[in-house]
Design brief:
Helix content is 40%, strand content 22%. With 217 residues, the chain is of the alpha+beta class. The chain has two domains: 91 residues, 2-Layer Sandwich (Phosphorylase Kinase, domain 1); 120 residues, Transferase(Phosphotransferase), domain 1. This is Toluene tolerance protein.
Length: 217
């Protein structure tokens, strides 16, 4: 993590467009060069972010995902910006549209649901547990591949996720009303479940799907 002074920060953000902000200030900036600057603040005096800043977690998670062949943003630098009491990650965004942006517009909704099921199975088999999983964090690229964004709240482990972690991950996803309705409405959930099932090892399909189906029913 590189510490930068205020003049360097101002030069970096010159001409930037603010994409996200809250009462405490800017959160996500699209810079003049088309790249992104995501800013993190420590919300509590004592927290894990004191020892392991969220900006560094974001960068470390991109490396872990890349090692697993999972598409994600490309980190250029990680900054500490004392003048605004923020840490920042400077990165090239993942091109495409989020799945949430595509809801209600895609004529291939069933195909996308099936693809998402297979993709989530791939993530889980590769040990990726994304606690902030929702369809605003999953991108469909122009060449029809799926990837993850906003990945500070993500952990990668060496082994495939346990059944309990998979179910918790789906429970996180289904907290969002618009995601749940699009994914499961009018029996659409069967398509998603079938995509997930087919991407699992054959010996894991029946026992895991039997536990997953009631959650998605």
């Amino acid at each position: 993590m590189q510490s930068i002074d205020h003049s360097t920060y101002e030069a970096l953000r010159a001409g930037a467009h603010v994409l996200e902000a809250d009462g405490s200030g800017d959160k996500v900036l699209r810079l003049a060069d088309g790249r992104m600057l995501k800013l993190f603040r420590r919300k509590r005096l004592l927290s894990s972010a004191l020892f392991y800043p969220y900006a560094q977690r974001f960068a470390d998670n991109t490396r872990a995902l890349e090692q697993r062949g999972i598409l994600c943003p490309e980190v250029i630098a990680v900054y500490r910006i004392p003048s605004i009491e923020r840490d920042g990650v400077y990165y090239s965004p993942l091109a495409g549209n989020t799945v949430r942006q595509l809801q209600g517009t895609s004529e291939e909704s069933d195909s996308l649901r099936f693809q998402l099921g297979a993709y989530f199975a791939q993530l889980h088999e590769k040990g990726v547990y994304f606690r902030s999983l929702h369809f605003g964090n999953v991108v469909l690229t122009p060449d029809n591949h799926l990837g993850l964004i906003d990945i500070a709240d993500l952990r990668c482990q060496k082994r495939a996720l346990s059944d309990s972690k998979r179910l918790r991950n789906f429970a996180h996803l289904l907290r969002y009303k618009e995601d749940r309705q699009w994914l499961l409405g009018q029996d659409a959930g069967d398509t998603f479940i079938e995509g997930y099932r087919q991407a699992l090892p054959s010996n894991r399909q029946a026992p895991l799907i039997s536990r997953l189906r009631p959650l998605l029913g």
